[in-house]
Amino acid sequence: GRLNADTARFLLLAVLIVLYMLCGAAVFSAIELPTEREAKERWEERLENFTRRHNLSRAELRHFLREYEEASVAGIRVDDIRPRWDFTGAFYFVGTVVSTIGFGMTTPATVGGKIFLIFYGLIGCAGTILFFNLFLERLITVIAYIMKSCHERQLRRKGVLPHNGRRGSGTSEVDSLAGWKPSVYYVMLILCVASLIISCCASAMYTPIEGWSYFDSLYFCFVAFSTIGFGDLVSSQNIKYESQGLYRFGNFVFILMGVCCIYSLFNVISIVIKQSINWILKKLDCRCCHRCQRKLFRSRRNVVMPGNVRSRRNISIETDVVNESDTDGRRLSGEMISMKDFLASNKVSLAIMQKQLSETANGYPRQMSSNSKQNGFSGGVGALAIMNNRLAETSVDR
């Protein structure tokens, strides 16, 4: 049933994430551990030379270094830097909070600040995540509108659509984009290109101003835009910059745009991962069950096969949600698909069929007027659509 499929999908994803983490830990350990050991050996050598030169004990020196570490956590550095809790520094801090980046360079030290952060971050993070989700929805709508406009322009050039066709109301315009939802892979490609362009432009700004290498700037962009926020590299931390106001504004814009694109990209990639998990689960099904289903399908030649209803090669953002509905259990079990599921799966094809039949009956692509829509005659499939259009014309003439 549906519960078993969800449980299997959850367990498989958990296993894959654990394996992914184990592989990542092995790779990072192999790459970073030798460098860490070399740095530790150099530090121990310098510590030994310093204690011998100044006639200090190891215990006293280590106690002094621990006190410096505590001061460093509070924001104290050896070099003079600007105050971390002035208004601009606090604004930068709340930006890292609501965006869930959390560099860790600036943290509240008072009890009141920590309590306020809990409630402030609870509302701020929720609102920002909602903003990111709405950004992805608007992006999909814009892509669908562009695809639909380009298609209509091609039809007008061929003479299929009239050049003076008027668009409908705002609601009908949104409904007309339902069949133009872009593919998941198309949206993922657009977000990848946009994220790469933003990261390259931001790195070109960070490299001369912050004094980082271009590779370190790209590294900072990914860590910041993905809201990982290690804190090893943090922008806008020096005491003074050339064109300081302009730089801080540009830094804010790049981080906002980058986080929106990368967060949306993560959402789209998660859809692709979900599809891959579903494909793996299908491959892991018992072969014996598939053989039994094939025998059952052969004995029922007139049955509509679930696999033939619609292809899953070009899955859109919207149809991916439909595919995960309650009909999945019936499709996997091999039962005949219901009429409701068939109509839901082929709504775009039925709409095209209705449009073609209407054009054949009227002799030209007909634009429905506002009066006919108010009469409630717009709708239907096949012959019913032709009859409704005739009734609409009769009611308008009257």
From TrEMBL:
The alphabetical list of record keywords is: Cell membrane, Coiled coil, Ion channel, Ion transport, Membrane, Metal-binding, Potassium, Potassium channel, Potassium transport, Transmembrane, Transmembrane helix, Transport, Voltage-gated channel
TM ranges: 12-33, 90-111, 117-147, 184-206, 212-234, 246-266
Q: Which GO terms describe its biological process?
A: stabilization of membrane potential
- Show the coiled coil region(s): 33-60
* Gene Ontology molecular function, alphabetical: metal ion binding; outward rectifier potassium channel activity; potassium ion leak channel activity
* A cellular component annotation (GO) from this entry: monoatomic ion channel complex
Report which reactions are catalysed by this protein. Answer: K(+)(in) = K(+)(out)
Membrane topology field: Multi-pass membrane protein
Potassium channel domain: from which residue to which, for each copy? Answer: 77-139, 189-274
Q: Which family does it belong to?
A: Belongs to the two pore domain potassium channel (TC 1.A.1.8) family.
Q: Which PANTHER family match?
A: POTASSIUM CHANNEL SUBFAMILY K MEMBER 13, POTASSIUM CHANNEL, SUBFAMILY K
Name of this chain's protein: KCNKD protein
